[in-house]
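STRUCTURE:
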């Protein structure tokens, strides 16, 4: 199986365990389950029930709890690697090792916070990107690639790189929005708009020209997108300033929480952008 699939399954197992014992994460039963062998068994069973893995012999109810024994060795090894990756991300902390196969862990306070989050968080890269794609069907293909790179950089702790990639995705979407909006205008108005956009020296100036136009025409926009000040201007500015800070030659790494927030914010931003682009594209088609 792919690393992303196994990471998704491992996170699901941890979340399920946490939801059962969240009132007392120091319960000995919870602590006994937080070891590489037990989690590998649970991941194997989950993939088996989801139809993602078929052992040579179907598992019976009696031996389901030992699914990890039949799981491919390379997948068991990957699950262990994922758990140590979660240590690097601050979600788990190592506790003790009983033998070379069984490392026990504890859940950190930060890990509790992550496991309480929605399932489609950056720590679940497949779920996060699938939800982004479903919620934002008009997101540009290269914007999706930028966000995928941002998630990978975030999980690898390349926080400045992740911030820059989110910024690139935002810039790409705004430039496309400028293009679509321009195509909705009558010839004379389009020429004036294009001329004003061409005179802009940077993306921020182009955004301001577009934003002023959209704001003047907001009563004709879809109901869900009318709060332009909040979802468009607000999120654009947060992402832009974060990207500028991260891209400065003397910049320090942005806080983990800020990068996480920008990735989550982008999902909201992309959803509204997708709706607005669809609305404007229909205007272009009706005018042609």
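SEQUENCE:
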């Amino acid at each position: 199986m792919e690393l992303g699939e196994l990471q998704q399954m491992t996170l699901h197992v941890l979340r399920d365990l946490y939801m059962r014992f969240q009132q007392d994460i120091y319960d000995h039963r919870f602590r006994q389950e937080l070891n590489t062998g037990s989690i590998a068994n649970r991941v194997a069973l989950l993939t088996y029930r989801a139809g993602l893995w078929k052992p040579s012999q179907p598992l019976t109810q009696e031996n389901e709890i030992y699914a990890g024994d039949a799981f491919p060795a390379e997948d068991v090894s990957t699950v262990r690697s994922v758990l140590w990756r979660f240590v690097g991300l601050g979600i788990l902390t190592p506790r003790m090792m009983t033998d070379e196969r069984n490392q026990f862990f504890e859940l950190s306070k930060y890990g509790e916070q992550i496991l309480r989050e929605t399932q489609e968080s950056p720590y679940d890269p497949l779920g996060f990107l699938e939800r982004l794609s479903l919620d934002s069907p008009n997101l540009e293909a290269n914007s999706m690639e930028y966000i995928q790179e941002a998630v990978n950089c975030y999980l690898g702790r390349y926080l400045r790189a992740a911030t820059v990639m989110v910024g690139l995705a935002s810039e790409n979407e705004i430039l496309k929005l400028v293009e679509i909006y321009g195509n909705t205008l009558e010839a004379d108005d389009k020429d004036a708009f294009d001329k004003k956009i061409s005179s802009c020296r940077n993306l921020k100036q182009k955004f301001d020209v577009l934003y002023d136009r959209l704001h003047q025409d907001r009563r004709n926009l879809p109901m869900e997108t009318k709060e332009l000040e909040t979802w468009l201007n607000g999120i654009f500015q947060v992402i832009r300033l974060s990207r500028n800070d991260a891209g400065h030659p003397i910049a320090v790494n942005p806080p983990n929480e800020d990068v996480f927030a920008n990735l989550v914010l982008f999902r909201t931003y992309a959803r509204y952008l997708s709706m607005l682009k669809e609305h404007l594209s229909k205007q272009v088609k009706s005018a042609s």
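REMARK: The mean pLDDT is 89.
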